[in-house]
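For the sake of clarity, the format in which proteins appear in this thesis is described at this point. The record quoted next illustrates the convention:

___
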Amino acid sequence: MTKIVFPTQEKLSYISPVINSFEESKYLTIISCKGQNIDSVDMVLNPYNPSHKKNFIKYCKTSHFNVLVTPDGSCLPVKKLEDQHISVYKTKENKIILNIFSDFVQDKLAKVK
């Protein structure tokens, strides 16, 4: 199972638009999928704190997140996330999660390095 995480402001499941960054999001919308099929969608309050990035990395690892998707990857500790086998991909702001998921499974998203 793969868990893909998106920064959002609204609790609209997979039709939520993605906002610019994890710093600004109110929620994390998490898609759990098997292959190209969505198994479940969860929303949690965003625990991200820019001054405590280590805590966020730990949260991602203990939550078994595999992928973070964001328009602005600059606020994330990408190298440290990669060290924990968590990939970060870039997308456009305000794009709907379901459309981004479709892009992800079709390998249309660029990986942040």
